[in-house]
Amino acid sequence: MTDEKCKVIEHRELGSGYRFISFDAPKIAEGATPGQFVHVRVPGLEPSALRRPFSIFNAEEGRLELLYKTIGRGTAALNAVKPGDVVSVLGPLGHGFPLKCNGAALLVGGGFGVVPLYFLARRLISKALGTSEAKAPIVKLFVGGRTKNDLLALDRFEKLGVEVHAATNDGSFGAKGLVTDPLDDELIQLRTAGEKFELFACGPDPMLKAVSMRATGSKSKGWISMDRHMVCGVGACYACIQKTVRGNSRCCIEGPVFAAEDLVW
Ligand SMILES: Cc1cc2nc3c(=O)[nH]c(=O)nc-3n(C[C@H](O)[C@H](O)[C@H](O)COP(=O)(O)OP(=O)(O)OC[C@H]3O[C@@H](n4cnc5c(N)ncnc54)[C@H](O)[C@@H]3O)c2cc1C
Ligand code: FES
Protein backbone atom coordinates (compact mmCIF):
# COMPACT_ATOMS: atom_id res chain seq x y z
CA MET A 1 0.00 0.00 0.00
CA THR A 2 1.34 3.42 -0.99
CA ASP A 3 0.21 6.98 -0.41
CA GLU A 4 1.09 8.16 -3.90
CA LYS A 5 0.98 11.74 -5.15
CA CYS A 6 -0.69 11.21 -8.50
CA LYS A 7 -0.95 13.63 -11.40
CA VAL A 8 -4.39 13.70 -13.02
CA ILE A 9 -4.11 12.78 -16.71
CA GLU A 10 -7.72 12.89 -17.84
CA HIS A 11 -11.03 13.80 -16.19
CA ARG A 12 -14.28 13.87 -18.11
CA GLU A 13 -18.04 13.63 -17.79
CA LEU A 14 -19.72 10.42 -18.96
CA GLY A 15 -23.29 11.66 -18.50
CA SER A 16 -25.95 10.89 -15.87
CA GLY A 17 -23.69 12.06 -13.03
CA TYR A 18 -20.87 9.64 -13.82
CA ARG A 19 -17.27 10.73 -14.48
CA PHE A 20 -14.05 9.06 -15.59
CA ILE A 21 -10.72 10.09 -14.05
CA SER A 22 -7.24 8.73 -14.68
CA PHE A 23 -3.98 9.30 -12.84
CA ASP A 24 -0.30 8.77 -13.37
CA ALA A 25 0.15 6.29 -10.47
CA PRO A 26 2.98 3.86 -11.26
CA LYS A 27 3.31 2.35 -7.76
CA ILE A 28 -0.40 1.75 -7.20
CA ALA A 29 -0.97 0.53 -10.76
CA GLU A 30 1.85 -2.00 -10.48
CA GLY A 31 0.41 -3.76 -7.42
CA ALA A 32 -3.31 -3.45 -8.12
CA THR A 33 -5.57 -6.45 -8.59
CA PRO A 34 -9.29 -6.48 -9.55
CA GLY A 35 -11.70 -5.84 -6.68
CA GLN A 36 -9.22 -3.72 -4.75
CA PHE A 37 -9.92 -0.04 -4.17
CA VAL A 38 -8.08 3.23 -3.61
CA HIS A 39 -8.77 5.90 -0.99
CA VAL A 40 -8.64 9.35 -2.56
CA ARG A 41 -7.99 12.57 -0.65
CA VAL A 42 -10.28 15.02 -2.40
CA PRO A 43 -8.64 18.42 -3.01
CA GLY A 44 -10.83 21.33 -1.97
CA LEU A 45 -12.19 19.63 1.13
CA GLU A 46 -10.76 20.74 4.48
CA PRO A 47 -7.61 18.79 5.53
CA SER A 48 -9.50 16.91 8.26
CA ALA A 49 -12.05 15.64 5.71
CA LEU A 50 -11.91 11.93 5.12
CA ARG A 51 -10.76 10.24 1.99
CA ARG A 52 -13.30 8.64 -0.36
CA PRO A 53 -13.03 4.99 -1.52
CA PHE A 54 -13.30 4.02 -5.21
CA SER A 55 -12.87 0.65 -6.91
CA ILE A 56 -10.11 0.35 -9.48
CA PHE A 57 -11.58 0.43 -13.01
CA ASN A 58 -8.27 -0.29 -14.70
CA ALA A 59 -4.58 -0.21 -13.84
CA GLU A 60 -1.86 -0.73 -16.39
CA GLU A 61 1.34 0.87 -17.68
CA GLY A 62 1.53 3.16 -14.65
CA ARG A 63 -1.96 4.50 -15.18
CA LEU A 64 -4.82 4.21 -12.69
CA GLU A 65 -8.41 4.67 -13.92
CA LEU A 66 -11.51 5.28 -11.81
CA LEU A 67 -15.15 5.78 -12.71
CA TYR A 68 -17.36 7.51 -10.16
CA LYS A 69 -20.83 8.86 -9.56
CA THR A 70 -21.33 12.28 -8.01
CA ILE A 71 -23.55 11.76 -4.99
CA GLY A 72 -22.43 14.08 -2.16
CA ARG A 73 -19.90 16.62 -0.94
CA GLY A 74 -16.73 14.63 -1.61
CA THR A 75 -17.54 13.46 -5.10
CA ALA A 76 -18.89 16.95 -5.98
CA ALA A 77 -15.55 18.46 -4.89
CA LEU A 78 -13.70 15.81 -6.92
CA ASN A 79 -15.48 17.13 -10.05
CA ALA A 80 -13.33 20.29 -9.85
CA VAL A 81 -10.02 18.41 -10.20
CA LYS A 82 -8.30 19.18 -13.51
CA PRO A 83 -5.64 17.42 -15.62
CA GLY A 84 -2.23 18.36 -14.19
CA ASP A 85 -3.50 18.61 -10.57
CA VAL A 86 -1.80 16.35 -8.05
CA VAL A 87 -3.98 14.21 -5.78
CA SER A 88 -3.02 11.97 -2.84
CA VAL A 89 -4.21 8.43 -3.51
CA LEU A 90 -3.79 5.60 -1.00
CA GLY A 91 -3.76 2.08 -2.36
CA PRO A 92 -4.18 -0.52 -3.58
CA LEU A 93 -6.37 -1.49 -0.62
CA GLY A 94 -8.44 -4.50 0.39
CA HIS A 95 -8.86 -8.04 -0.74
CA GLY A 96 -9.92 -8.48 -4.37
CA PHE A 97 -11.40 -11.20 -6.59
CA PRO A 98 -9.58 -14.48 -7.24
CA LEU A 99 -8.09 -14.64 -10.73
CA LYS A 100 -8.69 -18.36 -11.21
CA CYS A 101 -12.12 -19.43 -12.33
CA ASN A 102 -13.46 -22.94 -12.60
CA GLY A 103 -15.73 -22.78 -15.67
CA ALA A 104 -17.49 -19.73 -17.10
CA ALA A 105 -17.02 -16.43 -15.26
CA LEU A 106 -20.43 -14.79 -14.85
CA LEU A 107 -20.02 -11.16 -13.76
CA VAL A 108 -23.08 -9.46 -12.30
CA GLY A 109 -23.13 -5.70 -11.77
CA GLY A 110 -25.38 -2.77 -11.09
CA GLY A 111 -24.56 0.97 -11.25
CA PHE A 112 -20.90 1.62 -10.43
CA GLY A 113 -20.64 -2.08 -9.51
CA VAL A 114 -19.39 -2.69 -13.06
CA VAL A 115 -16.20 -0.78 -12.20
CA PRO A 116 -14.23 -3.62 -10.51
CA LEU A 117 -15.87 -6.16 -12.84
CA TYR A 118 -14.31 -4.49 -15.88
CA PHE A 119 -10.83 -4.74 -14.35
CA LEU A 120 -11.59 -8.37 -13.47
CA ALA A 121 -12.75 -9.20 -17.02
CA ARG A 122 -9.57 -7.64 -18.43
CA ARG A 123 -7.32 -9.61 -16.13
CA LEU A 124 -9.18 -12.94 -16.56
CA ILE A 125 -8.93 -12.61 -20.33
CA SER A 126 -5.38 -11.24 -20.57
CA LYS A 127 -4.06 -13.75 -18.00
CA ALA A 128 -5.36 -16.67 -20.05
CA LEU A 129 -4.05 -15.21 -23.31
CA GLY A 130 -0.64 -14.64 -21.73
CA THR A 131 -0.29 -18.33 -20.82
CA SER A 132 -0.26 -21.56 -22.78
CA GLU A 133 -4.06 -21.81 -22.51
CA ALA A 134 -5.43 -22.04 -26.05
CA LYS A 135 -8.25 -19.56 -25.55
CA ALA A 136 -9.59 -17.04 -23.10
CA PRO A 137 -12.19 -18.21 -20.56
CA ILE A 138 -15.86 -17.54 -21.19
CA VAL A 139 -16.62 -14.22 -19.49
CA LYS A 140 -20.18 -12.87 -19.54
CA LEU A 141 -21.52 -9.68 -18.01
CA PHE A 142 -25.05 -9.41 -16.56
CA VAL A 143 -25.72 -5.76 -15.90
CA GLY A 144 -28.76 -4.03 -14.45
CA GLY A 145 -29.99 -0.52 -13.78
CA ARG A 146 -33.13 1.54 -13.44
CA THR A 147 -32.71 3.00 -16.94
CA LYS A 148 -30.15 2.74 -19.76
CA ASN A 149 -28.36 5.78 -18.26
CA ASP A 150 -27.27 3.58 -15.32
CA LEU A 151 -25.48 1.11 -17.59
CA LEU A 152 -21.80 2.03 -17.71
CA ALA A 153 -18.82 1.12 -19.87
CA LEU A 154 -20.64 -1.56 -21.88
CA ASP A 155 -18.53 -0.69 -24.94
CA ARG A 156 -15.35 -1.37 -22.93
CA PHE A 157 -16.62 -4.86 -21.97
CA GLU A 158 -17.65 -5.58 -25.57
CA LYS A 159 -14.20 -4.56 -26.84
CA LEU A 160 -12.75 -7.28 -24.58
CA GLY A 161 -15.05 -9.83 -26.23
CA VAL A 162 -17.31 -10.11 -23.18
CA GLU A 163 -20.91 -11.09 -23.97
CA VAL A 164 -23.17 -8.45 -22.36
CA HIS A 165 -26.71 -9.17 -21.06
CA ALA A 166 -28.49 -6.04 -19.85
CA ALA A 167 -31.74 -5.52 -17.98
CA THR A 168 -33.39 -2.24 -17.02
CA ASN A 169 -36.38 -1.65 -14.75
CA ASP A 170 -38.06 0.57 -17.37
CA GLY A 171 -37.06 -1.56 -20.38
CA SER A 172 -35.11 1.35 -21.96
CA PHE A 173 -32.21 -1.02 -22.72
CA GLY A 174 -31.99 -4.81 -22.74
CA ALA A 175 -34.64 -6.93 -21.07
CA LYS A 176 -37.30 -5.22 -18.94
CA GLY A 177 -36.91 -6.29 -15.33
CA LEU A 178 -34.15 -7.29 -12.97
CA VAL A 179 -30.64 -8.38 -13.87
CA THR A 180 -31.37 -11.72 -12.20
CA ASP A 181 -33.84 -12.54 -15.02
CA PRO A 182 -31.20 -12.98 -17.79
CA LEU A 183 -28.83 -14.42 -15.19
CA ASP A 184 -31.36 -17.12 -14.26
CA ASP A 185 -31.84 -18.01 -17.94
CA GLU A 186 -28.07 -18.46 -18.25
CA LEU A 187 -27.86 -20.56 -15.06
CA ILE A 188 -30.60 -22.89 -16.34
CA GLN A 189 -28.72 -23.36 -19.63
CA LEU A 190 -25.41 -24.05 -17.88
CA ARG A 191 -26.94 -26.50 -15.43
CA THR A 192 -28.77 -28.32 -18.23
CA ALA A 193 -25.49 -28.63 -20.15
CA GLY A 194 -23.63 -29.69 -16.97
CA GLU A 195 -21.22 -26.74 -17.34
CA LYS A 196 -19.34 -25.25 -14.41
CA PHE A 197 -19.44 -21.54 -13.55
CA GLU A 198 -18.49 -19.02 -10.88
CA LEU A 199 -20.31 -15.79 -10.04
CA PHE A 200 -18.61 -12.44 -9.41
CA ALA A 201 -20.80 -9.55 -8.26
CA CYS A 202 -20.69 -5.90 -7.25
CA GLY A 203 -23.63 -3.52 -6.89
CA PRO A 204 -26.54 -2.74 -4.59
CA ASP A 205 -27.11 -5.01 -1.57
CA PRO A 206 -30.39 -6.65 -2.74
CA MET A 207 -28.68 -7.67 -5.99
CA LEU A 208 -25.64 -8.99 -4.11
CA LYS A 209 -27.86 -11.03 -1.80
CA ALA A 210 -29.74 -12.49 -4.78
CA VAL A 211 -26.48 -13.45 -6.52
CA SER A 212 -25.02 -14.84 -3.31
CA MET A 213 -28.09 -17.08 -2.80
CA ARG A 214 -27.80 -18.36 -6.37
CA ALA A 215 -24.13 -19.24 -5.82
CA THR A 216 -24.66 -21.07 -2.53
CA GLY A 217 -27.90 -22.67 -3.79
CA SER A 218 -26.11 -24.14 -6.82
CA LYS A 219 -22.98 -25.11 -4.87
CA SER A 220 -20.92 -22.89 -7.17
CA LYS A 221 -18.39 -20.34 -6.02
CA GLY A 222 -19.64 -16.78 -5.65
CA TRP A 223 -17.40 -13.76 -5.06
CA ILE A 224 -19.26 -10.76 -3.72
CA SER A 225 -17.84 -7.24 -3.45
CA MET A 226 -19.54 -5.40 -0.57
CA ASP A 227 -19.99 -1.63 -0.60
CA ARG A 228 -19.88 -0.32 2.97
CA HIS A 229 -19.44 3.25 4.14
CA MET A 230 -15.73 3.60 4.95
CA VAL A 231 -13.83 5.99 7.16
CA CYS A 232 -10.15 5.03 7.57
CA GLY A 233 -10.00 2.44 4.74
CA VAL A 234 -7.13 0.60 6.44
CA GLY A 235 -8.72 -1.49 9.18
CA ALA A 236 -8.43 0.87 12.15
CA CYS A 237 -11.92 2.29 12.77
CA TYR A 238 -14.34 -0.66 12.31
CA ALA A 239 -16.81 1.56 10.40
CA CYS A 240 -17.15 -0.89 7.51
CA ILE A 241 -18.33 -4.04 9.28
CA GLN A 242 -19.92 -6.95 7.39
CA LYS A 243 -21.33 -9.97 9.23
CA THR A 244 -19.74 -13.22 8.15
CA VAL A 245 -19.76 -16.82 9.38
CA ARG A 246 -16.50 -15.96 11.17
CA GLY A 247 -18.06 -12.98 12.97
CA ASN A 248 -17.68 -9.31 12.09
CA SER A 249 -15.29 -8.62 9.22
CA ARG A 250 -13.94 -5.29 8.00
CA CYS A 251 -14.80 -4.64 4.36
CA CYS A 252 -11.64 -2.57 3.87
CA ILE A 253 -9.29 -5.35 5.01
CA GLU A 254 -10.96 -8.77 4.89
CA GLY A 255 -13.09 -7.50 1.96
CA PRO A 256 -14.46 -5.81 -0.01
CA VAL A 257 -14.64 -9.16 -1.84
CA PHE A 258 -16.00 -12.08 0.23
CA ALA A 259 -16.86 -15.66 -0.67
CA ALA A 260 -20.67 -15.92 -0.94
CA GLU A 261 -20.72 -18.85 1.49
CA ASP A 262 -19.08 -16.67 4.18
CA LEU A 263 -21.60 -13.83 4.12
CA VAL A 264 -24.39 -13.51 6.67
CA TRP A 265 -27.31 -11.44 5.33
C1 LIG B 1 -14.91 -0.41 -1.61
C2 LIG B 1 -15.72 0.70 -2.24
C3 LIG B 1 -15.61 0.93 -3.60
C4 LIG B 1 -16.35 1.96 -4.19
N1 LIG B 1 -16.21 2.15 -5.53
C5 LIG B 1 -16.88 3.15 -6.13
C6 LIG B 1 -16.73 3.38 -7.52
O1 LIG B 1 -15.97 2.68 -8.21
N2 LIG B 1 -17.43 4.40 -8.07
C7 LIG B 1 -18.28 5.18 -7.33
O2 LIG B 1 -18.92 6.06 -7.87
N3 LIG B 1 -18.44 4.98 -6.00
C8 LIG B 1 -17.76 4.00 -5.38
N4 LIG B 1 -17.92 3.79 -4.03
C9 LIG B 1 -18.83 4.68 -3.28
C10 LIG B 1 -18.14 6.01 -3.00
O3 LIG B 1 -17.07 5.79 -2.10
C11 LIG B 1 -19.13 6.97 -2.37
O4 LIG B 1 -20.12 7.29 -3.32
C12 LIG B 1 -18.44 8.25 -1.94
O5 LIG B 1 -17.57 7.99 -0.87
C13 LIG B 1 -19.46 9.27 -1.52
O6 LIG B 1 -18.75 10.42 -1.08
P1 LIG B 1 -19.45 11.85 -1.04
O7 LIG B 1 -18.65 12.72 -0.17
O8 LIG B 1 -19.73 12.33 -2.42
O9 LIG B 1 -20.84 11.54 -0.40
P2 LIG B 1 -21.21 11.73 1.12
O10 LIG B 1 -21.60 13.16 1.31
O11 LIG B 1 -20.17 11.13 2.00
O12 LIG B 1 -22.48 10.81 1.17
C14 LIG B 1 -23.65 11.09 0.38
C15 LIG B 1 -24.64 9.95 0.61
O13 LIG B 1 -24.12 8.72 0.14
C16 LIG B 1 -24.04 7.76 1.19
N5 LIG B 1 -22.79 6.97 0.99
C17 LIG B 1 -21.53 7.39 1.18
N6 LIG B 1 -20.67 6.40 0.93
C18 LIG B 1 -21.39 5.34 0.58
C19 LIG B 1 -21.10 4.00 0.24
N7 LIG B 1 -19.86 3.52 0.23
N8 LIG B 1 -22.12 3.17 -0.06
C20 LIG B 1 -23.39 3.60 -0.02
N9 LIG B 1 -23.74 4.85 0.30
C21 LIG B 1 -22.77 5.71 0.61
C22 LIG B 1 -24.02 8.58 2.44
O14 LIG B 1 -24.49 7.83 3.54
C23 LIG B 1 -24.94 9.71 2.10
O15 LIG B 1 -26.29 9.35 2.19
C24 LIG B 1 -17.21 2.77 -3.41
C25 LIG B 1 -17.32 2.54 -2.04
C26 LIG B 1 -16.60 1.52 -1.45
C27 LIG B 1 -16.72 1.27 0.01
S1 FES C 1 -13.00 1.79 7.08
FE1 FES C 1 -11.98 1.80 8.99
S2 FES C 1 -11.89 -0.32 9.47
FE2 FES C 1 -12.72 -0.28 7.48
Describe the structure.
By secondary structure, the chain is an alpha/beta fold. The protein folds into 2 domains: 2-93, Beta Barrel (Elongation Factor Tu (Ef-tu), domain 3), CATH 2.40.30; 104-262, Nucleotide-binding domain of ferredoxin-NADP reductase (FNR) module (Rossmann fold, 3-Layer(aba) Sandwich), CATH 3.40.50.80. 23% of the residues lie in helices and 34% in strands. It is built from 6 helices and 16 strands. The mean pLDDT is 94. The chain binds flavin-adenine dinucleotide and FE2/S2 (inorganic) cluster. Flavin-adenine dinucleotide is lined by residues 37, 52-55, 67-69, 71-75, 112, 115, 227-230, 256.
Give the helix/strand layout.
Blueprint: E1 2-15, E2 18-24, H1 26-31, E3 37-40, E4 52-55, E5 58-60, E6 63-69, H2 73-78, E7 86-93, E8 104-110, H3 114-129, E9 139-145, H4 154-159, E10 163-168, E11 175-176, H5 180-193, E12 197-202, H6 205-217, E13 222-225, E14 241-244, E15 247-250, E16 257-259
Parallel strand pairs: 8-9, 8-12, 9-10, 10-11, 12-13
Antiparallel strand pairs: 1-2, 1-7, 2-6, 3-4, 3-7, 5-6, 13-16, 14-15
This protein binds flavin-adenine dinucleotide (FAD) and FE2/S2 (inorganic) cluster.
The site of flavin-adenine dinucleotide (FAD) has 20 residues, from strand 4, strand 6 and helix 2.
